[in-house]
Design goal:
The protein is α+β, with helices and mostly antiparallel strands. The protein has 11 helices and 23 strands. The strands form 7 sheets. Strands 9, 10, 11, 12, 14, 19 and 21 form a 7-stranded mixed beta sheet that branches. Strands 13-20-15-18 form a 4-stranded antiparallel beta sheet. The chain has a 3-stranded antiparallel beta sheet with strand order 2-3-4. It is elongated.
Amino acid sequence: MLRVGFTSLHVPFRSWPSGTVKSRSISSAATKEVVSSEQLGVTEPKVHSDIPIANADERKVSILWGPQRWSRFHHIWLRDHCRCPDCFHPITKQRLLNTFEIPADIKPLHVQGSTDGLEVVWPGTSTESHSSVYPWTWLQANTYDPALQITPTRKVLWGSKIEKSPPSVTYTEVMDDKGLHKWLTNVETFGFCFVSGVPATPEATEELCERIGFIRETQYGKFWEFTADLSKGDTAYTTMALGAHTDNTYFTDPCGLQLFHLLSHTEGSGGATLLVDGYYVAALMKELHPKFHDLLSRVPIPAHAAGEPSALYTPSPPAMYPPLRYHPSTKELVQVRWNNDDRSVMSHLLPDEVEEWYQAIKIWNELLTKPDSEYWVQLSPGTVLTIDNHRVLHGRSAFDGKRRVCGAYIGIDEYRSKLAVLKEKFDGTDGNGENKVWRPEDSRSIWNSNL
């Protein structure tokens, strides 16, 4: 087995736990049928100072990245993740290997490090072996022993001062993919973005929405246009003020993006749009009131949409989703889900938590309605507002006169898919830091971090 030197490898957004690892040779059981480099038809590489050290024992391959930085991968895990053309389809990006035929006690015949990555030779048929290569950056990005300490995706939290420089792009820009990338990156970073210079027509607005992905049809229709006529059983179809809320709390899967375009407002005034960064308010609550923050991230709230005689929506299961949802591994806040107007009966509260829960939502509301949290803006024809409905709460002031608004919902998966494709196209790297230059433009790396 080749033993080579190492140097520190840089992987963006990753930090590594400290630990030590002892160098160990491959066991006799694993080495008695070693296939030499000559037999494989390759030349033994020279020692490079930037190649990590790789060793194998009875169950795992250990990789020493640098002083006090290491990873271990089970043999069966590595074999399952081989991405040669026989094991992983290079076009469809689907697994071809039959995972269930991998022997539980599989051991590599040969392990070595090279400039391309970790090279492993596996036992195959009686006459053939099987070779796998795993890029170093991919192994670093997917290490689980020890587990990664992942830096959360960069988010800019904001309060009322965002009014000085809100994120914005132009309609001309977003009709090009580079501008579309800028638009959706702004939404990912800030939770909202304006698009200016949009023709004040439903047709142009619908076309803009479809630049992102499929429009999600709901009980309000597909692409919707409404006035204060109560044509739908929802307070949005009135002239009333609406407090800060997220939409679709009554859906199991609330929409990802919501787009608004004020087409006209005549014979009246009011109707200013309210935006509140739910991530910012959640961070405040976590710092100032950790006990009540815990309640809001733990106690689910049932919801309903029951204003239409032909529809009655509740999430499934009905009392499953708390207002603040955190990622179980990274502990990153991933969704704010709050609309007190659509809240159903809280019959599932524990008796000793009832009063504390009401205190918690009161504090949450106080933080939401603080002047420092609220960003008020008067929309005008030609400007489309895009909101991440999993983060930013919206509302409006009361108004009078004739107000005509159009817009649509986009699913969270459609939005994330489009953004991921645009990042592949315009960011300097894709997947796990792999440079895109060597690949055809229409080709997706089999080592992409999303696969």
